[in-house]
Design goal:
Helices cover about 25% and strands about 35% of the residues. It is of the alpha+beta class. It has two domains: about 110 residues, ACT domain (Alpha-Beta Plaits); about 80 residues, ACT domain (Alpha-Beta Plaits, 2-Layer Sandwich), CATH 3.30.70. A four-stranded antiparallel beta sheet has the order 4-5-3-6, covered by helices on one side. Strand 8 and strand 9 form a beta hairpin. Helix 1 packs antiparallel against helix 2 and helix 3 packs antiparallel against helix 4. The longest helix has 14 residues.
Length: about 200
């Protein structure tokens, strides 16, 4: 496959690169995490990876937990991959048909991140409601939140949010956050160009 394996100090290996995946008709690839359980025998990892590339998946990384053993005496392996959403079930089914024990599949993960700062009566206008609106309306996940309220909960405060988003959706997500901020009279400080958006 032309991948490079780099062991870390825990005995795990990470593999990057892989086959190219074709975008689906909806215009994009989605990133997923699949947890597998492998027998500790030569060639098992390679056998588990072949169905991914054969079904249009692009391997992003592998965490091979050689130091851990599952209750059945196998090694857990976490595979991050991207593929068109309509091909993901084919990848999982092909793994199972190939005799690979799939512990968890379908955990979609986001490929991008964006950070914003909300300034105003952040706490007083119901921070929990604001975060829920961002997650629901912008289809983003709050990874990290830092809140500064030097004048107390009734005064002006700032909240720095780090959000996980679909790759290539930063402009759309920021537009939605601006709309949410406008409804609550919050100023949205956006990331600088070339930042983590």
């Amino acid at each position: 496959m032309g991948d490079s394996s780099v062991p870390d100090d825990t005995g795990s290996s990470t593999v990057d690169g892989a086959a190219s995946a074709e975008p689906s008709a909806d215009g994009g690839l989605r990133a997923y995490t699949v947890r597998l359980e492998l027998v500790d025998e030569p060639g098992e990892l390679l056998r588990a990876l072949e169905p991914i590339s054969k079904n249009g998946g692009n391997l992003l990384s592998i965490h091979h937990e050689r130091g851990n053993i599952t209750p059945r005496g196998h090694i857990p392996v976490e595979v991050d991959l991207e593929c068109p959403p309509d091909r993901f079930e084919d990848v999982v089914e092909s793994l199972r048909q190939g005799g690979v024990n799939v512990i968890q599949a379908g955990a979609e993960r986001y490929g991008g991140e964006v950070s914003v700062v909300l300034v105003g009566h952040v706490v007083d206008t119901d921070l929990s409601d604001t975060l829920s609106a961002i997650e629901t309306e912008a289809n983003a996940v709050v990874l990290d939140l830092s809140l500064a309220a030097p004048d107390g909960t009734k005064g002006t405060a700032s909240a720095r949010l780090r959000l996980a988003i679909d790759t290539g959706r930063a402009d759309e997500v920021l537009e939605t956050i601006r709309s949410i901020g406008a409804k609550k009279d919050l100023t949205v400080v956006e990331p600088l160009p070339g930042g983590d958006a």
